[in-house]
Write a structure and sequence with these properties.
About 35% of the residues lie in helices and about 15% in strands. The chain is built from 21 helices and 19 strands.
Length: about 625
């Protein structure tokens, strides 16, 4: 028969006395002390007395009907163990509040239910974050069905509108058409007459192209900053390419007089445009860049600094750039093909309100509604820019500053210091995705994307896929800047328009190289393709001048004739035979009428070295000291 009982709490001093007794006499002492301090519950006969209490399990007391040897103990004996160890909790866990029926039939007392140990409650992480800008970010990924369609190209990338261009010179002239060259030729001659007067020898197109070809050659030799006269000096360091083309004085004089606009109206235009001295040439070049190439799916917008330390109203100081001082440009490039599609100068503090957003929208305006992705750095990236680009069917990917208002406090650097290395957190707000990646302790990277809509992690690197896509597309402008620095045509000058013109020449050569390579894949080994392209471009630009001087080498110096032979042109020591119908005795005639002028109005003393007929300055090409008429040169 089960004994009804009630447990009571035993005082600690009684437990201590019972634990010290090793001879089993503790039962009597315990009952004697309990009778004084606690209530005794009897079964009616007075035989079995059990102390009653209110909290038995808190003192970790155990009742057992077995002795230490595994045998049965007395039915009316309760053993109290004061062992506060964790093993007792784990080994004797029970959720049954009733006594054991089998033990009850034998007169034994059943075990009371044990209370499980409670673990501390973990703090609940929020599922939404509110930014100061009003954006609400959620940890849940958006449904793909609710996202707009993006990055769908509607036309293939590559060259376009190139016509039948086949040679390297023809591809280069796409960016330097006759319109640009004629303007340079006209304004350079005006400046030469203005400064030199009658001593100025008129610059012709052949000479202008020769000067540009020599600039590309010196850039290819990485000697753009060397002294010019060193290339024309005799000796082991002489440059036969330069000696055979023109004199050193003429080369320097052309560069010194080179202008790109009408000086008479310059001040009026500068009142509204600081870039007026070279604006026409610059805008024409940018239009040609957009005309002849259809960019790929990934575009990069960034800034670059062209080195210059002279006087300029919009010169910038950027200590993080290698040059530190120079002219700043905003550049948009195709990061896959390394092609410049748009470029814009930074003319100083004019309208600084949301400058990064305005610059990106201006750079990619020709790409609206084309389904491309734009990669930027943290100077440009913002949620407002990403939302406006989405309206124009463009996506945005780039790093973002943690101080921006659209970034919640939980993603700032202070909150990321407690996170483990190589951990990532994602937040979503409609079509926008924000990721915080910790590459190492106390360092975090924030990226914003409207192209990615999931929390994909690369299995190999444990980095988000957003970071991999950013690393593959971010270096478009940096690659162009590096290519310009390797074969730079820029020479030392104190005039900032010449610095811009040298930079245009660098970009034109890079774009022409890209178009030529896409049109003629595998035309040259990849390792030396660009140097071979520049070598051929310089040769084609100077070739007409070489031919002219080689055909009329009688008045050239011996050193010049030797240089022509070195570069591979055969010298014609004798003049060509004169036509029988136009034989003239020039020993008796000192002047005559130009045979190309209508009505015989052009009286001149110049004689064509090829056909020995009189030809005025309008119908001759002068390469000092040789004069050739346009008919002999095939200009008419």
């Amino acid at each position: 028969m089960a004994i009804p009982m009630m447990l009571t709490k035993v005082p600690n001093h009684i437990l201590e006395e019972s634990s010290d007794d090793d001879n089993g006499d503790s039962d009597g002492s315990i009952h004697s002390n309990i009778s004084e301090t606690t209530e005794i519950l009897s079964d009616g006969d007075g035989d079995n007395e059990i102390p009653a209490g209110d909290d038995y399990s808190d003192n970790n007391e155990e009742e057992s009907g077995n002795d230490d040897d595994g045998g049965e103990g007395d039915d009316d004996t309760i053993t109290i163990n004061d062992n506060d160890s964790d093993d007792n909790w784990d080994d004797n866990e029970s959720s049954d509040d009733t006594t054991n029926d089998a033990d009850s039939e034998d007169g034994k007392v059943g075990k009371p239910a044990k209370r499980q140990r409670l673990t501390p409650a973990q703090p609940t992480l929020p599922t939404t974050y509110k930014a100061k800008s009003g954006h609400t970010w959620s940890v849940d990924q958006p449904s793909p069905a609710r996202l707009p369609r993006s990055n769908i190209l509607r036309e293939a990338s590559g060259p376009r509108n190139i016509g039948g261009a086949t040679s390297i010179l023809e591809f280069w002239k796409m960016f330097f058409p006759e319109r640009i060259l004629d303007n340079i030729l006209c304004y350079t001659n005006e400046q030469g007459v203005r400064e030199r007067g009658r001593s100025w020898v008129k610059l012709v197109m052949m000479e202008l192209l020769t000067v540009l070809g020599l600039l590309y050659f010196l850039g290819l030799c990485k000697a753009a900053h060397d002294q010019v006269r060193d290339f024309w000096k005799p000796g082991m360091f002489a440059r036969p390419v330069c000696q055979a083309a023109m004199k050193a004085d003429r080369f320097q004089e052309v560069l010194r007089m080179m202008r790109f606009d009408d000086k008479a109206t310059r001040q009026q235009r500068k009142a509204t445009d600081k870039f007026a001295p070279i604006r026409d040439v610059f805008d024409e070049f940018v239009n040609n860049c957009q005309k002849y190439f259809n960019p790929g799916e990934n575009m990069t917008v960034d800034d670059e600094l062209v080195a210059f330390r002279g006087i300029c109203g919009f010169r910038q100081y950027m200590p993080q750039k290698p040059a530190r001082y120079g002219i700043k440009f905003w550049v948009c490039t195709d990061s896959t093909h390394n092609y410049v599609t748009n470029i814009q100068p930074y003319l100083g503090k004019e309208n600084q309100t949301k400058l990064g957003k305005r610059v990106v929208l201006d750079m990619v305006r020709p790409l609206f509604k084309t389904g491309r992705n734009i990669t930027t750095d943290n100077h440009f990236t913002s949620c407002e820019l990403a939302e406006e680009l989405l309206q124009e069917d463009l996506t945005l990917l780039g790093t973002i500053k943690g101080l921006r208002r659209e970034v919640p406090d939980a993603f700032k650097l202070e909150a990321s210091k407690k996170r483990e290395a190589r951990s990532s957190k994602f937040l979503f707000a409609g079509p926008l995705t924000l990721v915080s990646y910790v590459p190492r302790k106390n360092k975090s990277v924030l990226l914003l994307s409207s192209m990615h809509h999931d929390s994909a992690i690369n299995d190999t690197t444990s980095k988000p896929e957003m970071i991999h896509d950013y690393m593959h597309t971010k270096a478009g402008v940096d690659t162009i800047d590096q290519m310009c620095s390797v074969y730079n045509v820029a020479r030392i000058t104190r005039r900032w328009p010449m610095v811009v013109f040298y930079h245009i020449m660098n970009l034109a050569a890079i774009n022409a190289y890209t178009l030529y390579g896409l049109k003629n894949p595998g035309w040259h080994p990849k390792g030396s393709a660009r140097s071979a392209f520049l070598s051929q471009l310089a040769k084609e630009l100077i070739h007409p001048q070489y031919m002219l001087r080689a055909c009329n080498a009688s008045r050239l110096a011996r050193r010049t004739r030797t240089a022509l032979e070195i570069v591979g042109y055969e010298i014609q020591h004798h003049r060509q035979p004169l036509p029988e119908t136009d034989q003239l005795s020039h020993s008796r005639l000192k002047n005559g009428y130009c045979f190309l002028c209508e009505g015989g109005k052009g009286r001149t003393t110049k004689v064509c070295e090829s056909c020995r007929r009189f030809a005025c300055g309008k119908h001759t090409t002068t390469s000092r000291p040789v004069h050739n008429c346009h008919e002999c040169l095939g200009c008419n």
